[in-house]
Fold this protein.
Amino acid sequence: MQYRYVPKNGDLLSVLGFGCMRLPLKDNAVDESRAINQIRLAIDNGVNYIDTALPYHQGASEKILGKALQDGYRNQVKVATKLTPFMLQKPEDMQKMLNKQLETLQTDHIDYYLLHALDESYWEKMQTFGALKFLEQAQKDGKIINQAFSFHGSLTTFKEIVQANDWAMCQIQYNYLDEQLQAGTEGLHFAAAHKLAVVVMEPLRGGGLVQKLPLDAKQIFDTAPIKRSLAEWGLRWVWNHPEVTVALSGMNDETQVTENLKTAQVALPNTLTPNELDLITRAAEAYRRLLRVNCTGCQYCLPCPSGVNIPSNFQAYNDLSLNSDPLPALNIYNLFLKGILTGVRADAALCKKCLQCIKRCPQHINIPEKLVHVTETINQATANKPFDKDQ
Ligand code: SF4
Ligand code: SF4
């Protein structure tokens, strides 16, 4: 395993971090024993940074991580979890949330405690709640060791937040498709110049740069003289930046864990050649040309009071554009989201435009507006190509 320093405290963190946002599922719930085995497999092979948050898997992520870290695993890792602004009604809730998290995670301290998914409005809310004073006190009490934040706002706000407190770390979305999104490359360099460790989330865009990578982009990678998996290309691009400390991978399959561990050993900073970097840039351009909505599938927008499964609708909408065969996307939309097979509707047409979801979306997608396009586009595609009613 390759390790990189946290400038403010000298911690040596594994470049591969285990993200507990997309744990393996079974019967619509987290497959607990499999998740625990995967987390321990990663730790046994040198991963020492594990990230979770209260909303992940509706609270199950922190619980399962707490169990995974029993039997001597807790003292082998740094645990990161988050204070989630949209779950806080009043300032007193901050202490309650932290206490509950310590209990759920079965630990007496959180190593890296992050203000979660800050953007302009959540940053303002956290300041109004006195969150910085709260973090300082929690640190004095020994309940948290390091103050940090995760971010989904604009570059200007990112710079403001970096300079507003003595953070040890920040967490940003960064991958070869999102170089200019949110904090982006400029934010990465800015944070590193201010001696913050940088944890990267969505290095593979929730599988968007692997399983869901469109054929046009895949064909560009196929021309590379060195054969690498799509995951390896994506992770190597992130770790090629010396300013990146950890890349969080939301691993939910044993082979993914093993493959990423292997890449983490060899993906040293500044090792991609100019030709390889050019290849990745061309693949990103090919992908961008096809993407209809910039949804990463993070599920922060859920639940929707009208029952719309927002990320699944956007996935079907994107898949329609990304894949040459429209049938799989139409089947998912019509049979599952429109409830023909399940009896429960979750399709875009249910949206009542209450706007609740917009504020929660870290990608700042105008969700209700896009859902209108989803309905129109999929209805039209269905009329042109009837879906497979026998599936
Ligand atoms: S705007 Fe539409 S999709 Fe968003 S929460 Fe409201 S009903 Fe659901
Ligand atoms: S719409 Fe936004 S919040 Fe919802 S899953 Fe997609 S990126 Fe996440």
Summary: The two ends are 44 Å apart (CA to CA).
